[in-house]
Design goal:
There is one protein chain. The protein has one domain. Helices cover 25% and strands 36% of the residues. It has five helices and nine strands; from the N terminus they run E-H-E-E-E-E-H-E-H-E-E-E-H-H. Strands 2-3-4-5-1-6-9-8-7 form a nine-stranded antiparallel β-sheet. A hairpin with a 2-residue loop joins strand 7 and strand 8. The longest helix has 14 residues. The N and C termini lie close together (11 Å).
Length: 222
Amino acid sequence: MKIHDLGVAVVARNHNPTILNPDFLKHNDIVPPNWELASPPICAEPVAEVRYKNGINIVAQLEKLIFSQTLADRSLGDAQVPEIMVRYIETLPHVDYRAVGINVKGHVVVDTEEEAQGYILDNLIAQGPWKRFDDKRPSVSVQFSYLIQEGSLNITVEKGLLPLSNEKHLPVVIFTSNFHRDITGEFSREKVVKLKEVIQSWRKDIETFRSLVEKTFLSIEV
């Protein structure tokens, strides 16, 4: 399985999204000063967004922060989102952080869209009349929810098309994971420490995700 997207989402009560702008990120050493914008930033309540040409996207809302990165042909060694999120949190330690999600998306290449859909229908859906309506097979996605230490792991399996260019797309089976953990504690400092620990353990979460997919879902021939 190839990992192609990595994201960190943090639930934060009463966070002010209007502070998010390229100057704020640079002046607080959250991102390097030489990063180039991919589009004009959006900096207005209730949402702010900053996109960079290197595939990193930062979104701030009243109740949530979302830092994501498209890895494309890059390796996990090029992942920068967790480190950037940690620096952002360290800059704003008094925000009321409530929960964190590590979001990872990977794929397996198949020959056709029909093959991707067939893998889900034939291997992950029980036999029954729901597999056909009006003599046509449905388009489906499947979600699995698992309890993990201090949280939950949700995995969605669906077919997709991975863009290679403006005209060419690669048929794939997509596996999307969300590791969700609540952040508890009486004091902001205690919550920040816990939040940073979870984010900085992102590689462990990815290995858990990869192992689960490859040893269970992909033990079935795609």
